[in-house]
Amino acid sequence: MKRRGRLIFFLLSAAAFAGVYLWGLRGLPAVGHYRGPYGDVLNRVATYERHVTDIVTAVNFDYRGFDTLGEEFILFMSVIGGSVLLRRQREEEKGEHRDDNLADESPERQAPQPSDAVRVLTLGLVGPLVVFGLYIVAHGQLTPGGGFQGGVILATAPLLVYLAGDLKKFKQITSHTLVEVGEAVGAGGYLGIGLAGLIMGGAYLRNVAALGQTGNINSGGTIALINLATGLEVAAGFVLLLYAFLEQTLEIRLRGEK
Amino acid sequence: MLFLQFTILSFVVVTATAVVLTRDPAKQAIGISFYGLVMALMFFIFQAPDVALSQIVIGAVALPLMILLALTKIRHHEEEQRTRHKNEKEAA
């Protein structure tokens, strides 16, 4: 297609899109004027029914817990997919023509050592970051946050170790068997907690644990438990992905250090 | 409040356009990190702190990081193929 033809085609479709878009915008409720009944109903009853103060977490892990189970397994599958795809490449690299590349110790292959300021700052941040991540996971049912958010925060802690240039420690943390176990236990834990509802004679994912007192860290029944399982799964999943991506670079750099 | 909302929405528009208009993928990854940060602020201002918390880590750290790592992988692969071609030519 010629440039002119493409331009005409673009202008026509842009005009059509703008028309439909503006037409759709006219039908929207005004900002801050929520129409649906569910949000209002849940805001009213969730604290009473589930003893939690963060309604979003109650919705995620209880009222629509089955959807979140699906979401969690999307992450689980993408982590597996990423690791499998990159692993195939890894095995290829063990072939003959790859070794000279790995042994390449030319200066541009080596990352510069981070300065002392960067090392102190990043290593000093690891501790607070882990505590903060754990806090976000554990208080999911009380304050904004939860398993997903806290899990990702936890997974950035090994990244800080990597940024500090401590490659051996980074490898020790990320390639640990516990990470894989954590990933599996987290994903399976969610499923298992759901099954408890069936065993107790209710529906799948029914909130069967003791609800506790509103505002306490152990309140919310299965919401708190699923929160912890999700936190473990998400943190381990992201660490696994990080390792899958960085493994090759890591090998090269560790050889360069020797 | 309305002023804040308007400001942050225009920031979103500006950063999103900037990301689309950037042609170099490596620079785009930096741009999308900034865009992720602005999106997190937007969610926060529109009173969705849960989403903001996920967005700030995923959008500003994890997504750009994955893009950068994937880019490095691709570059490694291309380099390797180039050297292999050269070696084959020399052998022939």
What does it look like?
The complex is a heterodimer of chains A (258) and B (92). Chain A is an all-alpha fold. Chain A has one domain (54-257). Chain A has 10 helices and no strands. The longest helix of chain A has 36 residues, at 222-257. Chain A is globular. Chain B is mainly α and 92 residues long. Chain B has one domain (2-91). Chain B is 91% helix and 0% strand. In chain B, α1 packs antiparallel against α2 (25-45). The longest helix of chain B is centred in the C-terminal third of the chain and has 43 residues, at 49-91.
Structural class of chain B: mainly alpha
Total of DSSP H or I helical runs spanning 4+ residues of chain B: 3
Quaternary organisation of the protein chains: heterodimer
N-to-C SSE string of chain A, H for helix and E for strand: HHHHHHHHHH
Which overall shape of chain B is indicated by the principal axes computed on the Cα atoms?
elongated
Low-confidence segments of chain A = 96-100
Runs of chain B in which pLDDT lies below 50 for 5 or more consecutive residues are none
Provide the helix percentage of chain A: over 70%
Mean pLDDT of chain B: 89
| Overall radius of gyration of chain A | 24 Å
Distance between the termini of chain B: 71 Å
Helix content of chain B: over 70%
The proportion of residues in beta strands of chain A is under 5%
- What's the count of strands of chain A? 0
Note the main sheet of chain A: none
Helix/strand class of chain A: mainly alpha
How many domains is the backbone of chain A divided into?
Answer: 1
What is this structure, in a nutshell?
The complex is a heterodimer of chains A (258) and B (92). Chain A is mostly helical.
